[in-house]
Structure formats: structure tokens, C-alpha cells
Amino acid sequence: MATPVQPAELYRHGLRLLLDKDIAAWVDLWDDEGVFEFPFAPDGWPRRLEGKAAVRDYMRDYPDHIDLHDFPDVQIHQTDAPETIVVEMRGVGLLVRSNAPFYMSYIAVVSVTNGRITHYRDYWNPLALTQGGAADFAGKKR
Q1: Which residues, at least 6 apart from 17, have a Cβ–Cβ distance to it below 8 Å?
Q2: Residue 27 burial class via C-beta count within 10 angstroms: exposed 0-12, middle 13-18, buried 19 and up
Q3: Cα R_g (the chain), whole angstroms
Q4: Strand (E) or helix (H) holding 26
């Protein structure tokens, strides 16, 4: 399948890749200079990743920490800027280390240029992981 170029299609394709645990293919959706931001990151966690290599490093062990099963209720909103979407969704699955349920609500603001993610601002709550066995996913070990 060819990689979609429209932001909403690319985003949905990326969700399928995450569910398939194909992190390398998900990272390949990124522009070489793409920026990944986490506005609510606590102290010691990354707030900003610059470049595809940094995104790859951050995401490489994701399936070892979070076993995603579904993204129900995905709502994608167009903005006045055609390259930018706002996404509301939930992720569900298991925290690998503790086998505890994983439920996370997300809001993301994503920009796509030439079929690649150039900017992704992820408004998720990393504090929800600290109690359930995945606190090291993006913590000080990164």
C-alpha cells in the first residue's frame, strides 16, 4: 500500500501501524526534520524530539511497554490550515510489565507536508502511566 499523503489518511494509516506494532514503518511516516512535542511531560521526560532519528529512538521499545489493542472513537477535525488536523481519540490495551489495563485519552495536533509528519503535538497524560508499570517508557532512561 502506498503511503497516504492527506493528513487524516496518513494519521489513520499510522494508527494501523501502531496496532500492528510496526514501529519502524510508523517512524517512516515522519519527515527527517519532524518535531514531536509533549506539552504535559513531567520533569525528566522529553518535551520535544527533533528529527526522525530522535522519534525512532523514543519509539523503538514502545511495544515492550504498551501493548495497544485498539483506538476507539477516533475523531479527526480539519483546521483552517489544510496540512494540519486535530485528533481526539482513546487508546486501549495492556501495560506489558504489569499486565494492567491501559486506557489513555489523547488530543493531538498534527501537521503533514508532502506526505510526511512534520509536527506532532501530543496532549496525553504520561502521569497515568507512572502507577501502571510503564513509567520507564519515556522517563529518565531515555
Answers
A1: 23, 25, 26, 29
A2: buried
A3: 14
A4: helix 23-27
Phi, psi of 110 (to 5 degrees): -125, 130
Q: Does pLDDT of 28 surpass 70?
A: yes
User: Residue 120 CB: number of other CB atoms within 10 A?
Assistant: 22
On whether the CB atoms of residues 117 and 35 are closer than 8 A, the answer is no
In tens, the pLDDT along 48-64 reads: 999 999 999 999 999 99
3-state SS, residue 72: coil
Q: Residue 21 has which C-alpha cell? A: 506494532
Report the alpha-carbon distance of residue 118 to residue 110 in Å, rounded.
8
Phi and psi torsions of 138, nearest 5°? -125, 20
3-class secondary-structure state, position 105: strand
Amino acid at 27: V
Q: What is the pTM of this model?
A: 0.88
